[in-house]
Amino acid sequence: MQTHQSPFQGVWIPLVTPFSGGAVDGGALRRLVRHFKAAGVDGLVVCGSTGEAAALDDAEQLAVLDAVLNEAGAMPVVMGLAGNHQGHVLQRLAAFGTRPLAGILAPAPYYVRPGQDGAAAYFRSLADASRFPLVLYDIPYRTGTTLETATLLSLAAHPNIAAIKDCGGSLDKTLALIADGNMNVLAGEDLQSLSLLCLGGSGLIAAAAHIRPDLFVAMHQAVRAQQLDLARRLFQALAPVIQLAFAEPNPGPVKAQLGRQGLLSDELREPMPAASAALARRMDAAVAGLNRQFPCQ
């Protein structure tokens, strides 16, 4: 089992970035944080791929982070840190200063495909330089780099590498990381969240958990309590919403539903498209069905 028990466990939301008239909407951002705190989620990830970080400049990313930290209180907050210019990434890391971050979520350098040795050296340089624990982000379909099991097991031994967001798509790799126990394993693919929890993973970072976060929290708690029939029932009810959340480019479908809930304006930055009207209607129907089965409290 994992030796790192906190804070990298439970249900984490990879927070969307609300926009209004092209600018970051700080009011909506703070409203989202309050909403997820009330739902009982365990932590927030800021400026990840769901947060459209690639469309935010450095100053905007820091402004988003500060708005979330100011509202989050004691809730743990992890900051995304992605790039392929190592010097620039390290400068951005230093700019986080003494902010009270729970950790840094970092994928391999995208596009450049540095191989196993290069990727491992990159992660070690971040972990050595960081005041905050590192959460590895294994997502080869975005970065172009597949992190091998041996590479990840070696990195897990680093004292400042605490967890991994697992989007690697390899059950063998996932099992090896859980069995190794040197870092917490968090599901990064929403449809694999229940299976990973049942295998001994510590939690999930789930974009679809923006929608009915309370039910994702209940599912995690049911697994922890060995109430597996309840956990399966919750997951099976959530599955249609999860599938629709990724039927078009993320976070378009999630933002469409959050807009319908009055939590933000359904606005994305180009080139990211908004969800189609047809998909938004299908999401409405799926969420309505979910709400009938598990009424909002």
Plain-language structure description:
There is one protein chain. The chain has twelve helices and ten strands. It is an alpha/beta fold and 297 residues long. The chain has one domain (10-227): Aldolase class I (TIM Barrel), CATH 3.20.20. Strands 1-4-5-6-7-8-9-10 form an eight-stranded parallel beta barrel, surrounded by four helices. Helix 3 links the parallel strand 5 (77-80) and strand 6 (103-107). Helix 4 (115-129) runs parallel beside helix 6. The longest helix has 18 residues, at 228-245. The chain is globular, with a radius of gyration of 18 Å.
Question: How do the strands and helices of this protein lay out in sequence?
Answer:
Elements: E1 10-14, E2 19-20, E3 23-24, H1 26-39, E4 43-46, H2 58-72, E5 77-80, H3 86-95, E6 103-107, H4 115-129, E7 134-138, H5 140-143, H6 149-156, E8 161-166, H7 171-180, E9 184-187, H8 193-198, E10 203-205, H9 213-224, H10 228-245, H11 252-260, H12 277-293
Keywords:
single chain; 297 residues; alpha/beta; TIM Barrel; eight-stranded parallel beta barrel; 10 strands; 46% helix; 13% strand
Task: Report the major sheet.
Answer: 8 strands, parallel, barrel
Poorly predicted segments: none
Quote the beta fraction: 5-15%
Radius of gyration: 18 Å
Helix fraction bin: 40-55%
Terminus-to-terminus distance: 34 Å
CATH overall fold name: TIM Barrel
CATH superfamily: Aldolase class I
Secondary-structure-derived class: alpha/beta
As for the number of domains, it is 1
| Total DSSP helices | 12
